[in-house]
Write a structure and sequence with these properties.
Length: about 425
């Protein structure tokens, strides 16, 4: 049955790569494996439990609601304008500065595609006017869109914290320096590629347009997206300036402050908020629930036990798979979410069997999936960046592939070895 399970898993990931509906594919394959293994009801129950998981569902819905009202009120736009304004003053280091700043922005603004659309419309033309090759300008923005791997609002890092029975902010503070170092490495490598290909900013081409006199940044609005992150940091056990605060409550407080400060039409504000919460449920919570069916199917057919037994015999295989499994699938399919959820649901809880820490292994898995997406020519965020740069998505993948690969190797060494 384990061999049959392997065949089904391979077909499942092939279907995901071919852009079939991910939730449907995961549920169908999970139910098929559960039926073969004679454990159909646990798989069915897993879907229901996944929909109402108290450790994930409120966080996902409240975070997405907050994200939607940030866009509606213009807070996201003001933060983007503020940071891109800083970049206009750093012409000679535009490529590495863009990668790192977009990475930090992705911590506050979780949607990679949404962030690319918001920041790319301003930043990519700015880089191009500064003499940066269009494909390199778009690649610099794309390469920064995995910063949500250390965001307290990310459902994936929350999942890891739950598995490790560890405070999410403690987990983030533990892995943040290592992943930041990986980001710096990618920015340096991309800059090197830009110089080798002669696609970097040139002094004689500095024709960056100044900000329009009528375009003013509301600094108060720009700071609102950062409120939940600041609250979570100062209330974490490490800092302790405020009583412990849950991620869901931090997002809710941020939403209320956004309403009070921006004073929009309350009816439209509420409509946007609940639309975002609904999108979070349908797009993310339902994906998590579908992945739970897939995981239960793997358990029912005996595949999980077989994989764990194989990895237990070789810890190096487990470490390598934790990084490059999600990384490769994300690079091929454009989305590492399915692989991240499946791996962290089946293998990561047994990290101690491989001589690893659950928090480290889970964090590496989810970060690798997001990093792999940054070199995928079929990822939505890649397509958006390419369109804004007026180039082919493959042009971006050619430039980000080496930095992403080196960063994955560096992450393997820093986090798991």
């Amino acid at each position: 049955m384990a061999l049959t399970g392997i065949v089904i898993v391979v077909v499942t990931f092939y279907a995901i790569v071919k852009q079939y509906e991910t939730r449907l594919v995961l549920m169908a394959s999970g139910l098929l494996m559960a039926t073969i293994g004679g454990a159909i009801m646990p798989a069915v129950n897993a879907f229901s439990k996944g929909l109402i998981d108290p450790s994930l569902t409120p966080i996902i819905c409240l975070t997405m609601g907050f994200s939607f009202v940030l866009d509606y009120t213009g807070c996201s736009g003001n933060l983007v304008s503020l940071i891109t304004g800083w970049l206009r003053k750093m012409t000679f280091i535009l490529v590495p500065a863009t990668v790192i700043l977009v990475w930090f922005m992705n911590i506050a603004l979780l949607s990679a595609a949404g962030l690319a659309a918001a920041v790319g419309t301003i930043l990519i033309p700015t880089l191009i006017r500064s003499g940066v090759n269009p494909a390199m300008a778009a690649s610099a923005v794309l390469l920064g869109t995995w910063g949500s791997s250390v965001s307290p609002g990310s459902p994936f890092i929350v999942q890891v914290g739950t598995l490790a029975n560890m405070d999410v902010m403690l987990l983030i503070m533990q892995i943040f320096p290592k992943l930041l170092l990986c980001t710096v490495a990618t920015s340096i490598l991309l800059t090197g590629i830009a110089y080798v290909r002669k696609e970097n900013s040139v002094r004689g081409k500095q024709v960056v347009a100044e900000r329009s006199a009528t375009e003013k940044i509301n600094y108060l609005y720009a700071g609102i997206p950062l409120i939940p992150i600041v609250l979570l940091i100062v209330s974490s056990p490490v800092v302790g300036w405020l009583p412990p605060l849950s991620i869901a409550n931090a997002m809710l407080i941020g939403t209320l402050i956004c309403l009070l400060v921006t004073r929009p039409d309350p009816k439209e504000f509420a409509a946007r908020y609940f639309k975002g919460a609904g999108a979070g449920f349908s797009d993310i919570v339902c994906l998590v629930a579908a992945a739970a069916v897939f995981i239960q199917g793997m358990n029912g057919i005996g595949l999980t036990d077989a994989l764990i037994a194989g990895m237990r015999d070789s810890a190096s295989i487990a470490k390598f798979s934790a990084v490059f499994g999600p990384f490769i699938l994300a690079a091929i399919s454009g989305s590492g979410n399915a692989a991240v959820l499946a791996f962290n649901g089946t293998v990561t809880p047994h990290a101690a069997s491989f001589g690893l820490n659950i928090g480290d292994m889970g964090a590496a898995v989810q970060a690798a999936g997001m990093l792999g997406r940054c070199m995928s020519p079929v990822a939505g965020v890649t397509i958006i960046c390419a369109k804004l740069g007026g180039v082919s998505p493959m042009d971006l993948a050619k430039r980000t592939a080496l930095p992403c690969l080196i960063a994955a190797i560096l992450m393997l060494v820093l986090v798991l070895l």
